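Input/output pair, single chain:
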Amino acid sequence: MFRSGNPALKVFDKPQTLPGFGSDAKTMTIAGTVNAAFILVSLCAASAIASWMMLTSKGASDVAMPVVIGSFLGGLVTSIIMWFSPRTAPFVSPIYAICEGILLGAISLVVASRVGGPSGPATGMVFQAIILTFGIAFSLLIGYKSGLIRVGSTVKRCMVAALGGITLYFIAGMLLPLAGVQMPLFYEMFGWGKAGMIGIGFSGLMLVLASLFLVLDFQSIEAGAQSGAPKYMEWYGAYSLLATLIWIYLEALRLLSKLRSK
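Output:
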């Protein structure tokens, strides 16, 4: 069994320990996971469009932050529920997709407004980020299905170590200021729309890392289907794919905003 480096997909490491394993009449399939992923992506896209339109009509600067905080907390809570109880994924993952869509719509509008300036939101940049996200996803999927792209154990360990180091770095950057210690952050020093070679390079690195984790998602989902994981794991796998796609989109949007400013 391939061991996943994605914390959300750790449940695929030992599918035989999942509730209902071996007792359900139906088991997880790749086609079922694809269908579930399509539904979640559609819900996320629809809620993102609705969020963008709502904030545009009411003024992004007035209500964007409460929307961002509320939708972020909603996505976090639903993720935690599914981590501890994957069986809830068919019911909770759609709520997660809607919350994340609202979050993406708000963030996209704020970033586009900052980059566009007085001329209005840079909607073209948002569309470019969407195209780049799905272009990366389809390219990796084709490469994976053709056998050209695989993540071996050594690369996986490096990816997990890199993600762990980056996570600890950002946690320290958020906690140390509370003790009066200022710690420079790459995203803070070179934020949305700010051009700088270090910031651009860091955003590019994060985009590559997020893309590699999408390959890990493919491998773990395929392994889960081959091992006969329960049917509800299709929705859990789809949730994990959506989470990685959201990560890729945000990194693509950040990188494009810096390149546009540059």
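Residues 197-226 form the longest helix (30 residues). Confidence is low (pLDDT under 50) at residues 1-5, 188-193.
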